[in-house]
Amino acid sequence: MIPVWCWVETIWNSFSIAAMARYGLSMNSAFLVNSAAHKYGDRPFDKYIQARENTAVTLLTTGEGWHNYHHVFPWVYATSELGYTFNLIKVLIDVMAMIGLAYDLKTANPNAIKERRD
């Protein structure tokens, strides 16, 4: 109701932007991860699976494009190798852990990661 009262928007326009457009964008970004990240990019951890590391998908979805790593180490909450790649979702989860809203965050042994990568 704030857009209706403060910016003189119609109720339909407010609902369309705030609910429907947001839902459509979030669903399309999920579909992008499940299509482009399985077709385009590198496979540094397991060359026999279709999941790939895709930088463009990572940038568009705030860190969800490191798909080969995610499929090789599915228990790791960060979904990216060793924490030095762009992953805004990992930062959000780390902040939630700092304030007690996320816990038991699992990671992979750096030696296991290095072995799979080499």
TrEMBL record:
Q: Give me the Gene Ontology terms describing cellular component.
A: endoplasmic reticulum membrane
Q: Which GO terms describe its molecular function?
A: iron ion binding; stearoyl-CoA 9-desaturase activity
Which cofactor(s) does the record list? Fe(2+)
Per the UniProt entry, what are the Gene Ontology biological process annotations, in alphabetical order? unsaturated fatty acid biosynthetic process
Localization, per the record, is: Membrane
PANTHER family in the record: ACYL-COA DESATURASE, DESATURASE 1, ISOFORM A-RELATED
- Family from the record: Belongs to the fatty acid desaturase type 1 family.
User: Any domain commentary?
Assistant: The histidine box domains are involved in binding the catalytic metal ions.
Looking up InterPro entries in the UniProt record yields: Acyl-CoA_DS
Annotated signal sequence is: none
Q: What is this protein called?
A: Stearoyl-CoA desaturase 5
Q: Does the keyword Cell inner membrane apply?
A: no
Membrane topology designation: Multi-pass membrane protein
> What's the main place this protein lives?
membrane
Q: Which UniProt keywords apply?
A: Fatty acid biosynthesis, Fatty acid metabolism, Lipid biosynthesis, Lipid metabolism, Membrane, Oxidoreductase, Transmembrane, Transmembrane helix
